[in-house]
Specification:
Blueprint lengths: L3 E10 L2 E11 L4 E5 L6 H9 L6 E6 L2 E2 L5 H6 L2 E4 L11 H9 L5 H15 L14 H13 L5 E5 L7 H16 L3 E5 L3 H7 L2 E6 L2 E6 L1 H5 L2 H11 L2
Parallel strand pairs: 3-8, 3-9, 6-7, 7-8
Antiparallel strand pairs: 1-2, 1-4, 4-5, 9-10
Helix pairs in contact: 3-4, 3-5, 6-7
This protein binds adenosine-5'-diphosphate and magnesium ion.
Length: 238
C-alpha cells in the first residue's frame, strides 16, 4: 500500500487547469523528488495534499485512507508535514524558542529540553540557539524551518524548494539531513530545481509539466530523457 496516493486529481483556477488528472503514488520509505518548470503546478499539488486547496475532482489517500475531505490539521495529525517556500519562523524569537513552540505539543520539561538539544545538533544550529531567528543566514532559516516541520515526527515530509537560495555547500548539507531523516524512516517528497540535490537524495523522480505528470523514473532516466530536456529548454527561451 502506498503511503500517499493521488488519484485523477484536478484543480482549476478560473479557466486555468493547474492540476490535470494527476496520478501519483509514493511508497513508504522513499525519497521522491518533484521537478518541473516554473508554473508547472508543483506548489499547488502540495497545497492539495495538505488540504489548503480542495480539488475539483479526484482523491487523495494517505496510509490507505481517503483524506480528500479532511482539513489540514487532521492530515497533519495523521502524520503529514509540509515546509513551504517562504520561511515561516518567528523572527523575534530565538532559534531555541522557535523549536520550543513546535516541540512543546509533544514534550514537556526535561524531555522537551533534550528533544530541542537533539534537534539543534541535527540542524547544525547549536551555536545559534540563543540568536533571534531573524538574524540567521538564509540557509540557517531554512534549516530551522525544516526543524519545525519535523518536530511532530511526520511519516511524510513535503519540502517545497528547500535549497532555494542556498550555496552548494548548504545544499549538500540539506541533502544529508534529508537522507538521515529518511534513514530514520521518514518518507520525503521534495520539490527541487537543484539537480545536484535531486541526484544526492532522490530514489525516484516525477516531472510535472502544465499540471500533468510528464515523466517518471530514476534520476538517470530523467536526465537522459530528451522530452524532459525540451520542456526546460522551452522555458529558458520563453
Ligand atoms: P510551481 O510551483 O510549479 O511553480 P504553482 O503551483 O505555484 O507552480 O502554480 C501553477 C499555476 O497556477 C501558475 O500558473 C500559477 O499562476 C497558478 N496559481 C497558483 N496558485 C493560484 C491561485 N491561488 N490562484 C490563481 N492561480 C494560481
Ligand atoms: Mg512552486
Amino acid at each position: 500500500m502506498p503511503l500517499l496516493e493521488l488519484r485523477a486529481l484536478n484543480k482549476h483556477f478560473g479557466g486555468l487547469h493547474v492540476t490535470n488528472s494527476v496520478d501519483l503514488a509514493l511508497q513508504s520509505g522513499e525519497i521522491h523528488c518533484l521537478i518541473g518548470p516554473n508554473g508547472a503546478g508543483k506548489s499547488t499539488l502540495f497545497r492539495l495534499i495538505l488540504g489548503e486547496y480542495q480539488p475539483g475532482s479526484g482523491d487523495i489517500y494517505f496510509a490507505g485512507d481517503n483524506v480528500t475531505a479532511l482539513k489540514p490539521f487532521a492530515r497533519i495529525h495523521r502524520g503529514l508535514s509540509v515546509k513551504f517556500q517562504v520561511p515561516g519562523v518567528f523572527k523575534g524569537l530565538s532559534v531555541r524558542q522557535n523549536l520550543e513552540t513546535a516541540l512543546q505539543r509533544l514534550h514537556r520539561g526535561a524531555e522537551l529540553a533534550d528533544e530541542i538539544d537533539r534537534l539543534l545538533v541535527f540542524l547544525g544550529l547549536e551555536a545559534e540557539q540563543g540568536q533571534a531567528a531573524g538574524n540567521l543566514s538564509h540557509g540557517q532559516k531554512q534549516w530551522l524551518e525544516i526543524g519545525m516541520a519535523i518536530s511532530l515526527r511526520p511519516r511524510l515530509l513535503l519540502l517545497d524548494e528547500p535549497t532555494a537560495g542556498m550555496s552548494p555547500e548548504e545544499t549538500h548539507a540539506t541533502g544529508e539531513m534529508v537522507r538521515r531523516l529518511n534513514a530514520d524512516g521518514m518518507t520525503v517528497l521534495a520539490i527541487e530545481h537543484d539537480m545536484a540535490f535531486v541526484r544526492q537524495v532522490a530514489q525516484k523522480v516525477t516531472v510535472l509539466h502544465l499540471g500533468q505528470v510528464f515523466a517518471q523514473g530514476s534520476i538517470d532516466e530523467i536526465v537522459a530523457d530528451e522530452r524532459v530536456a525540451a520542456i526546460y529548454l522551452g522555458q529558458a527561451h520563453a
